[in-house]
Amino acid sequence: MTATVSITIVGRSYEVSCDEGQEEYLQTLATELDRRADTLLRSVGQVGDARLLVMVALLMADEIQELRRGKDAAARPRPDEAVDAALADGLDGLAERIEAIAERLERA
Length: 108
Description:
About 70% of the residues lie in helices and about 15% in strands. By secondary structure, the protein is α+β, with helices and mostly antiparallel strands. It folds into 2 domains: about 1-75, no CATH class; about 80-108. Helix 1 (about 25-45) crosses helix 2. The radius of gyration is 29 Å and the shape is elongated.
């Protein structure tokens, strides 16, 4: 089933269809879009509804890309972690060599 929700963006009302049960979620999204559009409108002045909404969409798309980059970066080891791992491996190798030398000295 389909539901129709009336949303308001920058003082203009729009009728939008959504799946039944998603009305409240759609209102939440519309409220966020309206808040961002209002903030942008205050900083750039009157630029027309279409241009304003394109600018808001671009800002939101930029945020999405940054979140994706952050998620990808979080999944990869930080350079510090890679260096630490390499140093730990190197120290383990040195410890083994020192133990081998110590054993040879004991036997001598």
